[in-house]
Amino acid sequence: MTAVKQPIFLCENVKIGTEDKSIVRGVDLTVYPGEIHALMGPNGSGKSTFASGLMGHPAMNLEGHIYLNGEALEDMPTHERAKRGLFLGFQYPVAIPGVTVASFLRAALAAVRGETPNVFEFRRQLEETFAQLGVPWAFADRYLNDGFSGGEKKRLEILQMALLKPKFIILDEIDSGLDVDALKVVSRGIHSAAEQGAGVLMVTHYQRLLDLVTPTRVHYFMEGRIAFEGGVETVKELEANGYDWLRDKLVTPEKGART
Amino acid sequence: MTVQESIHNVNRDYVERYGFADPEQLEGRAPKGLNRETVEAISRAKNEPEWMRSFRLRAYEAYEKKPMPKWGNQGVLTNIDFDDIYYYVKPSDQQERDWADVPENIKKTFDRLGIPEAEKKFLAGVSAQYDSEVVYHSMKEELESQGVVFMDMDSGVREHSEIVKKYFASVIPPTDNKFAALNSAVWSGGSFIYVPPHTTVDIPLQAYFRINAKNMGQFERTLIIADEGSSVHYIEGCTAPVYTTDSLHAAVVELIALKDAKIRYSTIQNWSNNVLNLVTKRAVAHEGASVEWVDGNIGSKLTMKYPCVILKGERAHGEVLSVAFAQDGQHQDTGAKMIHTAPNTTSRVVSKSISKGKGRASYRGLVRVNPGAVGCRTDVTCDALLLDDASRTDTYPTMEILQQDAQVEHEARVSKLADEQLFYLESRGIAPEQAKLMIVNGFFEPFTKELPMEYAIELNRLIALEMEGSIG
Ligand SMILES: Nc1ncnc2c1ncn2[C@@H]1O[C@H](COP(=O)(O)OP(=O)(O)OP(=O)(O)O)[C@@H](O)[C@H]1O
Ligand SMILES: [Mg+2]
């Protein structure tokens, strides 16, 4: 028996921008359950805008359609998108002084599950996840991202991902600032999410993450569009030749032309 | 249950919870307006010793002479009609030690406010003042047997005249400012506390102040003396019915921490928005002593309050931790004063305010290090958070550093509720209202964590109420 595979995440002609600036200018993307996609591209090409726009960033307008498991998300507020299973690991997680990691995680878990987790069950789960991701237990009582090192913040993003069990995961430069050990922890986390059927989109600049997590497909962003895409082998070309290699490949003239 | 959660369970407003009023009792009330005769009448009604009567009359003269402050919210201050205020309203004939004996309507009020309940659960002593008089008072027996004195100020004058005479108005003389003079002339109620040497009162003593009568002036007077090496935590809370005309609350609070003593004084001020709260609070910290003012201002129309510590003995430490929440129709003008007169004294001020809607929060502070006070350290941090474009905050810090080697740190920050913070929380499924509340509670966290759990919950609950409907 063959069933038609349904994408876990689908973007149709997505455009994102502020009142007076269009940044993401027409992106299509299809991700199936268990797939890991990579998104690369030069600084300022719109990768983070794409990621946060999908999540519903208040400064950004979004046109086009986004579907999670077949359900349209574009008209939902951010927290509803999260409750449906969309997750964004931030490039620069913001600090929230006075709110402890534990109370934040509890509120987040309660929100996505639709019920407040049992105290003991929550504690057990938290301890387990902390241990898995090598985050010292003392972090539970610290204020959220407040005074965390770059790497610690990133570990906490992955920890949230592991705890909330989202269906489509966008990770914005989760690998930058990580030491070798942390990188391994993070890649294990990504693998395990994908194994459980989540789709993943990793924004990255570096080969070293892709060596640990082999993507199904690599998309290259240029000026707010996917200019090129290919298998993981194309990353070698990029590493060797830089983004000029990509500029030469820009897709059809009318699509690639600047407006 | 955590503090964060409990705030979501409760969702009633001020009017219902605190803003109700009992029918007024008219008999025990001095006529409106203030003159020499009113002052005499109050003193007579209290059967006071001569020294207090003449103190009141001298204070009344000072009040007449003193000008209104020329700073602060002039719009409100210049509109106070001193002739339209009741200066003394006596609610019942005597003070009780058992709630069952308190007049039924008054008892109901305090029941609704949850005071008897709180007393049972976590307080060492309770005093409840209703308009001008303390109507209920009790303290745990073991404290009494240790020689701890906790009673209303009027009883203090009668029963402990030696010590009261020595310290009363020693920190805040009637001539200090117009409202201190007014209080000194017509004061009634408030607490008198004396903690004997090397005695630790480890659970808090609480006073609850309630204004019931309309156009009422409440002028309680509190004096706390912590003798050598002792320690005490005192908490006060206040509410009032919602009236359309203004009431005046002008308290005077004096603290004396003798050698190596420790006093913590916590306030949760939640007057209704027709109360003018003009309070003078000052402490003297002797050698090695420590005084902390933990001051939360949520209610009132206008609050002007700048708790002060005079660091008089070597190595004394003073601390003010204050938060203010100003919403539409409110001006929270608060701050702190630290006066370093002895060497090696230290002080810390942390002031946090949130302005919402058209609310206005001001910080007014003074740090002075006198010549000769070598080796002093002081650290002042002011954090203001604006929730809306119309909200307003201003800071008036004054530093008078007259001794060269003082270490002075001062930091002031104004921030707007950050979209990026909200977005982060929302991206984890947390709804916008809850996200906002989490950020606001987090902002106040350094304050709430200094309060006993029950008070922290209460404060967060109040903030949750104030925050309601603040999502655009
Ligand atoms: N709120 C905003 N208003 C105006 N311009 C913005 C805004 N946010 C981003 N931009 C601009 O959009 C462009 C894309 O930025 P974005 O952060 O998405 O790039 P990126 O591909 O993630 O870059 P990097 O690799 O450096 O992280 C940049 O020129 C940036 O300055
Ligand atoms: Mg980026």
Short description:
The complex is a heterodimer of chains A (259) and B (472). With 259 residues, chain A is an alpha/beta fold. Chain A has ten helices and twelve strands.
How would you characterize this protein structure?
The complex is a heterodimer of chains A (about 260) and B (about 475). Chain A has about 260 residues and is an alpha/beta fold. Chain A has a domain at about 10-90 and about 165-250: 3-Layer(aba) Sandwich (Rossmann fold), CATH 3.40.50.300. Chain A is about 35% helix and about 25% strand. A 6-stranded mixed sheet of chain A has the order 6-9-10-3-11-12, with helices on both faces. In chain A, strands 2-1-4-5 form a 4-stranded antiparallel sheet, covered by helices on one side. Chain A is globular and about 55 Å long. The model of chain A is unreliable at about 250-259 (pLDDT under 50). Chain B is of the alpha/beta class and about 475 residues long. Chain B folds into 2 domains: about 5-305, no CATH class; about 420-470, no CATH class. Chain B is globular. The two termini of chain B are about 30 Å apart. Mean pLDDT of chain B is about 90; it is low at about 1-10. Chains A and B meet through α2, β7 and α3 of A and α12 and α13 of B. Bound molecules: adenosine-5'-triphosphate and magnesium ion. Adenosine-5'-triphosphate binds near residues 21 and 45 of chain A.
Number of E-type strands of chain B: 22
Number of domains of chain B: 2
Multimeric organization: heterodimer
Q: Compute the gyration radius of chain B: what is it?
A: 21 Å
Tell me the structural class of chain A. Answer: alpha/beta
Class by alpha and beta content of chain B? alpha/beta
Coarse morphology of chain B: globular
Largest Cβ-defined interface: A-B, 31 and 28 residues
Number of strands of chain A: 12
What would you report as the Rg of chain A, rounded to the nearest angstrom? 18 Å
CATH topology of the domain at 9-92 and 167-249 in chain A: Rossmann fold
pLDDT averaged over residues of chain B: 88
Report the total helices of chain B.
14
